[in-house]
Structures are given as structure tokens and as C-alpha cells.
Fold this protein.
Amino acid sequence: MENLGKVDLEVKGNMGKIIIDHPPANTLNQNTLGSLSNAIQYLNCNESIRIIIISGKGDKFFAGGADIKEFGPLNQETGRIWIRFWHEVFRKIHYSPKIFIAAINGFALGGGCELALACDLRIAAETAKLGQPEVNYGIIPGGGGTQRLPRIVGIGWAKELIFTGDIIDAREAYRMGLVNRVVPLHKLEEEVELLAEKILKKGPIALRLAKEAIHAAMELPLEEGLKREIELFTQACGTEDKNEGAQAFFEKRAPKFKGK
């Protein structure tokens, strides 16, 4: 385990783990966000890492969101600079060729919820609570919440969560599609690693191309998205992994993908 300021970093085979460690609430102030950015960049540049798990230290907070004390001095000029940094960090997740899993071990509020939304998959402990309470402080979600939340749960649920500022439990989050799974807290790490190991057995190039294609569905009109899918499928057809996958099927064995 390596400490990078406000986060801990661990590498386990092809899996990287980032643990936010900023007690008591793992708030994402600018220092913590900077540490998170550095950790993501480090793992993104490590070619052996294919899956990155983000969680919070302890059993109460995944990430408590922005530090409210930082809001006071903000005006239109400084607010733009401040929130752009959040987007810069979350883009490193969104556009990464690697798969990101949020292991939501506790409260994921405001920017903490937006961090989870930026990840590809979200697994929540039964004790987790999520929400976008920014309207309670006279602002709006600014770290991607107004854009990613409706794309994930639909515009109706997104408006209700954002307009009310309600904090919901893990089961409600699962019901609306905000999280993929809900597991007991004491099994969260185990379940997330099992999911990661399952994904790691798949073709690495296929996973990268699939992530890019799915994001195209979120960002492009249907016809443009379909064209992008054709391009990415075509790329997959030119790989050794495609040949290995087909051969393994006919030989009734597990494929041995090389990422080529």
C-alpha cells in the first residue's frame, strides 16, 4: 500500500485500488481531489493495470463530497476555475481505456456521488447512502451530476434527486439503477474483487472498445453512435484476441487473451 497524500494506492496483479483517506468524511477538497487525480493518472499510465477500484477509508464514507468551507470565497470567476478541476479529474476516469468500479462503502454525497457516477460500475454496501444535496446550499451539482445522473437513471429520477436534494439508501439506489449491486458491507471488498476478476478474464481490447462504444451511445445521436460501433467492431476483428476467442470456443477451453 502506497500513500499519495490524501489517498492510498495499491496494485494487485492487473487490478489497481484507490482508497480515499481524508477523515472524518473523506471530503473531496482541492488537496484530496489533487491526490485522487495523481493516483488515477499513475494507474492510467500503468499498462499492466486493467481495472481500477475506488473506495473510501473506513466503513462510513465513500466520499462526502466537496468541502463546504471552500464554497464561501467562490464567485463566478473562481467558481469556474474550481469546478473545471473536478471535471478534469473525472474525465481521467470517463475517457480511460480501463474499467473503473466504485466500491461505495458509505455516504457518497454531492461530489462523492459524482465520482461514483464517473465510474463504469457501482457496487454499494447495504449501509451506503447516495445523493446530490447541492440545492440545499444554493448551488447545483457541478462535477457532472446533472449530465451523468440522467443518463444513468433517467431524467425523471435525476430531476427528483437533484431538485429535492434527498439522500437515498442503497436499496433505493439499486431500484432506480444508480448502483449495479448491493451487498453486505463486510462482503463489499470481496464481491467487488470477484467482479473485477471476472471482467479481467475477458479480452482486454474488447473491453476497451466496448467502453468506448457505450460512451458513444451516451454522447452521440443514434446513427452516429451506430457508425462508431461499426468502426470499433471492425478494429476488434483485426486482433489476435478475436482469433483466440473463436479458437478457444471451438476447442471448448478458456481463451488466453494477450491484448493484441
